[in-house]
């Protein structure tokens, strides 16, 4: 479904998702956001985060509040859903710092508030690739000046994630995150690439070359598996840095993560 332009009637923008949700599904993404965006949240004069398209149950919004409050005690979360029945069903979970409202990509917040953080997880999978840029532009225009949009995809129980971090100026980084014990090869994460990249995992595209090199480095690090899958991952990412702009370090690698610049994986053409 095409994304409506701002000139069209004021009503929720977007389409209803499947609504699949499970407790702790987004824990890897949440922990990364609390760490990477924590300094900006602590500086914010209005530390409000939006859980956009939280789904059929409000677990992800409840969990997001708890994780953000580890870095900012007065952080608040607004869960936004385009399906009115889901909003009504979430109301019993509302409490101080946590509310739910009807809306979509227009991100309706009271009083013209601009969120310090927007998380849009598993929201764009059903959209066309050509719609992604318009959605990103609409969402990042709603951010506070030091805000962050995190858009990506994960599996049903949160073992594998890939997300893009987007500032008001545009996309910044891509993060790959996994439960290491479940990983056969790094390219297993290809099925969780966000919509902007999933159709670009073909020869000639940067993301395909990255995953190819990731698998090769993983194979070369096989002897480290005798120590642990974590040690193998750390060795793999360390080797990957020789050819790819990895922007994080061993502290995050130990969590089964690696983050690279958006520019290095951005689609060609």
From TrEMBL:
One BP term from GO: methylation
Lineage: superkingdom: Bacteria
Residues covered by region (Disordered): 1-23
Keywords, alphabetical: Methyltransferase, Transferase
Entry's Gene Ontology molecular function annotations: methyltransferase activity
Comp. bias regions, Polar residues: 1-10
Protein name (record): SAM-dependent methyltransferase
Species this chain originates from: Streptosporangium nondiastaticum
């Amino acid at each position: 479904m095409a994304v409506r332009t701002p000139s069209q009637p004021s009503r929720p923008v977007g389409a209803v998702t499947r609504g699949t949700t499970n407790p702790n599904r987004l824990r890897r993404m949440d922990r990364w956001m609390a760490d990477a965006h924590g300094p900006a949240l602590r500086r914010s004069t209005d530390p409000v985060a939006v859980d956009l398209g939280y789904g059929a149950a409000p677990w992800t919004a409840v969990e997001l509040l708890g994780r953000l409050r580890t870095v900012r005690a007065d952080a608040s979360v607004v869960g936004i859903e385009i399906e009115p029945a889901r909003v009504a069903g979430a109301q019993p979970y509302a409490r101080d710092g946590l509310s739910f409202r009807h809306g979509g990509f227009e991100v309706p917040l009271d009083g013209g508030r601009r969120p310090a953080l927007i998380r849009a997880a598993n929201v764009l999978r059903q959209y066309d690739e050509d719609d992604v840029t318009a959605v990103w532009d609409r969402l990042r225009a709603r951010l506070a000046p030091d805000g962050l949009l995190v858009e990506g995809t994960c599996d049903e129980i949160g073992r594998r994630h890939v997300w893009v971090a987007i500032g008001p100026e545009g996309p910044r980084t891509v993060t790959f995150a996994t439960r290491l014990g479940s990983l056969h090869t790094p390219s297993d994460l290809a099925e969780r690439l966000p919509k902007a990249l999933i159709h670009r995992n073909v020869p000639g595209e940067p993301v395909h070359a990255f995953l190819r090199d990731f698998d090769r480095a993983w194979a070369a690090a096989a002897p480290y598996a005798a120590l642990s899958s974590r040690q193998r991952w750390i060795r793999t990412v360390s080797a990957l840095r020789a050819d790819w702009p990895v922007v994080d370090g061993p502290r995050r690698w130990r969590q089964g993560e690696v983050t690279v610049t958006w520019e290095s994986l951005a689609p060609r053409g």
